[in-house]
Every structure is written in C-alpha cells, then in structure tokens.
Specification:
This protein is of the alpha+beta class. It contains eight helices and 17 strands.
C-alpha cells in the first residue's frame, strides 16, 4: 500500500500523452486488466498533470503560445516613482492580459511566465531596466556584473540620510568656494579601481532583510564595509553651483549616490543626488533599446528580443547562457 496515493488507470488504446485518466480508490488485489498499465500517482503528480493540462489549453491560444516562446534579454524604460519590481510586475500583467492568461494568485505557485530584471534602479531613478524572459532569466547575472552608464545631477551643500533628494537633510555646508576646476580635479580620485561604502538605504541585506527596510522601521543599521568597485570613466558635463552633472560608466555593485556623497566630502562640503538616469546597461541604450510602456506588447517585445540578442553576440561574457541562480520574478540586486 502507498498511503496518500491514488491509482490512475491509463487506457491502452490511447497514447500516453492523450490518455484518459480515471481516478480509482485504494489498490485492489487484482485489476484483471490485460495490456493496461497501472501508474501510482502521488498528490504532486496529480498537481503536475493539472498544470500540464492548463498549459496545453494555454498553448492552444496563438498569442499565449507566442508569449511563452519568447526567450532572451531586452530593455524597458523605468520611469521615476515606481520600484523596479513594480515595473516588472506591471510588464508581466500586461503581457499575460494580452495573451489571455490568468495571473497566478499565489506567489509560491509555479509561474507559467518566467521573467526577471538585471539590476534594481532606485524608485527615484529612471532609465534602462534590462529584462530577461524565458531562458533569458539565466543571463541576468552576467548583465548585473557588466558595465553601466549613468547621468547624475548632484547638489552641493546638502547631505541627506538616503544620499538623494528623497531623504531628510542631515547636514548643510558652504559650497561657494568650490570651482569647476576643483570638482574636475577631485573626479580623478574616483576613477579606476576604488573602494566604496554602500549606502545604508539600499537593497543589500542583513539577516535576510533589506537595509532600507530596516532603516525605515527605525532600527539601528551599521554601514557595510567598503568594497572594491570599478569606474571606467567619470566626467563633468555641467557645473552651475550648487548643481553639477556627471556622466559615469561603472561596473557592477557601484552606487552613484555614494559617489556623489563622497565627492562632496572630498571637496570639504557635502552633496546628494538630485536626479539619476541609467543611460546604458551592457549593450542596451536608453535612446535605442528601452521600450516605453506603450510598446509593452508581445509583438514589440518579440522584435526587440531579435534585435537585442544580436547585440549580445559581440559581448563574449554573454554569448553563453549563464546557469547561475537568478530570481525569476525579481532580481533583488541593487546596482546604482
């Protein structure tokens, strides 16, 4: 006997894939069937068969079939305001609705559509958000570790607890003495391989919880130790005190908020980020590849995937699908 199991009789006259399933009770001493096969199905198997049945029904819909066949990386535009996870969920909901697929109510239930993003952008930031769909979710770790470009507007003379305009002002210092030449000279110290302390308000975790969440709850949070990061290029685009505009190209794990704060301290003042835009991630640029919400359709994404995946052919580190774990609903790795 197999406690908790049920017998499933598979008709011998039908192929296994189309077999009519008849649920039976406890195992009988002898079924007396000739040519029939007896399969013991655990509760998990029964669930799997139900999912298979639903998937077969979904695949009969051309739009759904096309959606579930999509695989690779593409880019969308993330506006200021929503979190990266919000944008990803909105994208997923639009695609499922267009395909006529009912959204799974339970988070832990196996998701039909695999989708994830390759690096969190602050809710106050905008720009390129790389998305992996299907097997493309396995390439997200490579995108996360790759190069990115940002345009940042900093404000001299004010420090905030979040290191950007969304936080509370914690310090104010004079900035009138700072010249354009002073700022350009300081930028050289932050180019190349440097050490950087991540912000307290970040997606980095302590005991499984984001530091930003702990900070909002009023809990004491210690700064993470400085870690090595790389800045490929850093240039001053505009200087109109107290505002200054930077163009930054950096590697993975880099925080532009920390950079601007550190620049302010180096100038014997303080600074915070007023605006932040990711203009490029990997080979995907804001102007050419980031799809705005009105283009979040199955056909538009299919075309974008074809174009974007051709760009990856010249990126040696991304030619091969990576097998590292990446969260398929959201990738909780903050990187700005």
């Amino acid at each position: 006997n197999h406690p908790g199991s049920s017998a499933v009789i598979v008709s011998p006259t039908l192929p296994t894939g189309d077999a009519r399933l008849q649920k039976a009770g406890p195992e009988p001493p002898s079924l007396g069937l000739h040519g029939a096969s007896l399969v013991w199905a655990s509760p998990a198997r029964s669930v799997a068969e139900k999912v298979h049945g639903k998937l077969g029904h979904v695949m009969a819909n051309p739009a759904a079939a096309k959606l579930l066949s999509l695989s690779g990386l593409f880019a969308v535009y993330k506006p200021k305001g929503p979190t990266s996870a919000d944008v990803l969920n909105q994208l997923k909901e639009k695609l499922l609705a267009e395909a006529g697929i009912q959204k799974c109510a339970r988070k832990r239930k196996k998701q039909i559509l695999k989708i994830g993003h390759g690096g969190t952008l602050d809710s106050a930031a905008a720009g390129v958000l790389v998305v992996g769909i299907g097997k493309g979710t396995k390439m997200l770790s490579s995108i996360l570790a790759g190069s990115k470009k940002y345009m940042a507007i900093g404000e001299l003379g004010k420090a905030t607890d979040t290191l950007d305009a969304t936080g509370k002002v914690t310090e104010e210092k004079p900035y009138d003495q700072i010249t354009k030449e002073d700022l350009e000279r300081v930028l050289q110290k932050f180019t190349g391989n440097i050490m950087q302390v991540p912000p307290l308000y970040s997606a980095l975790k302590r005991d499984g919880q984001r530091l930003s969440s702990l900070m909002k709850k009023g809990e004491a949070v210690e700064a993470k130790p400085a870690r090595p990061v790389v800045v490929y290029s850093l240039s001053l685009q505009n200087f109109q005190p107290p505002l200054f505009t930077l163009d930054v190209e950096c590697g993975g794990g880099f925080y532009v908020r920390s950079l601007v704060s550190d620049i302010g301290k180096e100038l014997s003042s303080c600074a915070n980020v007023q605006e932040l835009t990711r203009t490029k991630q990997g080979p995907f640029t804001l102007e050419e590849h980031a799809l705005h919400e009105d283009k979040w359709t199955i056909d538009e994404i299919a075309q974008s995937l074809e174009h974007c995946m051709s760009l990856l052919a010249v990126e040696p580190s991304l030619k091969k699908l990576k097998t590292e774990h990446s969260e398929e609903s959201t990738v909780n790795c903050e990187d700005k």
